[in-house]
Amino acid sequence: MIIRGFSTNAGVSSFANLWNHGGWFPNGAGGFILSFQMVVFAFTGIELVGLTAGETEDPEHVIPKAINNIPIRIIIFYIGALAIIMSIYPWNSINPDKSPFVQVFAGVGIAAAASIINFVVLTSAASACNSGIFSTSRMVYSLSKEGNAPDSMRKLTSHKVLLML
């Protein structure tokens, strides 16, 4: 869309939209800095990296690699997504009542854009719930092994999953 010069109601898509329309921080850097609160919140599940360290065969190699990939993931999934969306639609033409992702898909002509985004959000929520269940069960298992939780929480299935009876 950006390379082909996709036309929107706000003009033509271009990387120039990133510095036109007031530049990078037209209303100051405060909003940008405050947005990191949400980014950090999205990565609060990073404790799972430490929790799974005891379950991996080579934690000295796997854990640093996973931790070092976090900044790359933030750049790709947050900053990259923002750069692409703002290249297609300038920041001042995005409707705050709608998802910018829905606006991009709808602009391409995908009628089911809202449904696609809702599916992605629900899948992400289910994944987050699954991670929560995993981390909680492993924590209870560890506590049980140390004698700080009931012995029944020490039972695992043949696939090393906590057996909750």
Kindly describe this structure.
This protein starts with 6 loop residues before the first strand and ends in a 20-residue tail after the last helix. The longest helix has 33 residues, at 113-145. Helix 4 (100-108) crosses helix 5 (113-145). The protein has a two-stranded antiparallel ribbon. The protein folds into 2 domains: 1-96, no CATH class; 112-165, no CATH class. Strand 1 (7-8) and strand 2 (11-12) form a beta hairpin. The chain is mostly helical and 165 residues long. It contains 5 helices and 2 strands, in the order ββααααα. It is elongated, with a radius of gyration of 22 Å. 56% of the residues lie in helices and 2% in strands. It has helices spanning 30-42, 47-53, 59-88, 100-108, 113-145, and strands at 7-8, 11-12. Its main location: membrane. It is a multi-pass membrane protein.
Task: List its salient traits.
single chain; about 160 residues; mainly alpha; two-stranded antiparallel sheet; 5 helices; 2 strands; about 55% helix; about 0% strand; elongated; D-serine/D-alanine/glycine transporter; amino-acid transport; transmembrane helix; transport; AA-permease/SLC12A_dom
